[in-house]
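User: Show me sequence and structure for the first protein, then do the same for the second.

Assistant: Starting with the first protein.
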Amino acid sequence: MQARDSSFWSGWTMRCCVLLTWSALALMAGCGKESPAPAIRYDSKAAAVDGKTHWVFLVHPLYNPQLLQQKFEPLMEYLDSQMPGNLFDLETANDYADFERKLKQHSADLALPNPYHATLAQDWGYHVIAKMGDDSVFKGIFIVRNDSPVQQPSDLKGKVVAYPAPTALAAAMMPQLYLQKHGVDVQTDIHNIYVGTHNSSIMNAYLKQSAASATWPTAWKAFQQSNPGEAAELRVIWETPTLIQNAIIVRNELPQAIGTRVLELLTTLEHSAQGRELLAGIDTQNFVAASNQDYEVVRRFLKEYKSSVLKQP
């Protein structure tokens, strides 16, 4: 297979997104404190003229683009080093709607979606080969300011609640079902706003633009590390039950040998010091083999969510 002409533009798009999106977030926060990303490279890796096969690896926007690049680029470089003749081009999306669009258009060869999009993508020409370990991490949490008068879910009635996006499973759907089960009608009792990213959702609570903000533990941990001053003025008030972790999916047309080798490399990372460092960098303990069938639990959740929250048959 020839190197794909789109790989240069995939990398270029992500790099522009890194600069523009992070600038906007820093302006909103008033004092961006994220660690600087590694120097952005403009070399033959992104040029698609090096005689190697490029595979686009799309990661859902669980961090701001700069931090996502910082965390996931070492994993791409590891895959490159272990699969001679192949290069994995990291790509992200502006928001979850953009991420969904890219999957539908088959812009990615491999992807790391949340469980919701992992389930939908099965109808878009992808299948699950693995997932992140430790399902206990996959849950929604509600963030409020330390000085917030909110004590119980009913205290949110008439107030604003922020989320990254309607399709953020752990940070929107699961929190909304939690509220519904605790006596808050999500459709009528509160004002829901969708602000694009986990970081923005948390910042809405900090800036008092929402009475509470939803996110998930991994994004909250990253925010605490990069914005300790702001995080010190916030606290977790409730958490939802857990669900299955983020998936690794591949296009159905991806050569089987590529998918098999990527699966082997991901599921053995925990067995070496280098691998454990890579796993720590992307905030997971390990990867385990998985299949479409493992995500049937998400279909059951969605059925309950649509019935209880959306009030759809």
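Switching to the second protein now.
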Amino acid sequence: MTKPDIENKKLTRCFIALELSREAIDKIEEIQKLIKKKNLFYGKFTEPENLHLTLKFLGEIEENKIEEIKKVLAKIKFGEFEVKLGEIGVFINKYNSILWLKLNGPEIWNLQKEIDNELKGILPLEEKFMSHITIARMKKISNKIEFLDYIKNIKVEKIKFSVKQFTLKKSELKSEGPSYENLKTFDSD
């Protein structure tokens, strides 16, 4: 394949996600407001409409592969299952740290593994899956000790909700933040 052929291929940034219930999103917004009041970091909170759990990040995908991925995902059979919000935590690194909420339920792991296995002929296997919802991206934490102490004392109400589907999403990165579009939704049996 020549360089112009590669440059002419349209790539779409994609991921597979679980949507959250309205009640779970409302609870996350309450937590975000509590943390905002403390003003302990510089960064950006995830907008309510963008809150989700990523089951698998696919990266930049060629248009023709998206149709193949949809066909593979359509074969996955799963029953409706219940999940609940879990504890709050943080991934801290040098450049961009993540504030997250865990989403608990063994079926999440089963569904993620099945998606991963079904797509292994098309995409690499997931190296490290953790069932979390990104609620903020932090560029700079003013006082890490104070921040971590505050975070570990936040009590998260264990909101439960049913998962009846997962979604293949398109992601466009814009200066004001990411924009997501549903490409296809896959329902439980």
